[in-house]
Amino acid sequence: MAEREQVQDSSVDWVADHVARYVRTDGADGHEWRPGVFTLLLTTRGRRSGSLRRTALIYGRDGDAYLLVASRGGTPEHPSWYLNLLDDPRVEVQVGAERFTARARVASPAEKPRMWATMAAIWPDYDDYQTRTDREIPVVVLERS
């Protein structure tokens, strides 16, 4: 992803505000979103527009990998960021002040239960979100590239 390209932040006002504070302060304001709940910034390439899209997401760790849950609050549709990375798994990540490139993949059926438990321990609402929808909510694994 070219650094000179303009990044469009999430269109949801509170998320856009969170992202702006996070970027402006190198994560000093926003990395810890709530006590014990940390967020990273994920930049994907729009699958239709080709534009860079950035959003803040709760994350967990599994060894060196970062974990995300594509929950969209339990709605029937996958979040746009998830659909974007399925189309192009090369992503940019910011964790606090650290920025790096990564490759995204969906957790395998063998990995998912363990990774889901890690993420539900951080944000217990994920379990509730899964009961709200018939779709299988994916866990995404980000591995540095």
List keywords for this structure.
145 residues, alpha+beta, Pnp Oxidase, Chain A, nine-stranded mixed β-sheet, 4 helices
Verbal overview:
It catalyses: oxidized coenzyme F420-(gamma-L-Glu)(n) + a quinol + H(+) = reduced coenzyme F420-(gamma-L-Glu)(n) + a quinone. One of its GO terms (molecular function) is oxidoreductase activity. With 145 residues, the chain is an alpha+beta fold. Helix content is 26%, strand content 35%. The mean pLDDT is 93. It has one domain: Roll (Pnp Oxidase, Chain A), CATH 2.30.110.10.
List the helices and strands and how they pair.
Layout: E1 7-9, H1 13-24, E2 32-34, E3 37-45, E4 52-58, E5 60-62, E6 65-69, H2 80-87, E7 90-95, E8 98-106, H3 112-122, H4 125-131, E9 139-144
Parallel strand pairs: 1-4
Antiparallel strand pairs: 2-3, 3-4, 3-7, 5-6, 6-9, 7-8, 8-9
Catalytic activity: oxidized coenzyme F420-(gamma-L-Glu)(n) + a quinol + H(+) = reduced coenzyme F420-(gamma-L-Glu)(n) + a quinone
GO molecular function: coenzyme F420 binding; oxidoreductase activity
Family: Belongs to the F420H(2)-dependent quinone reductase family.
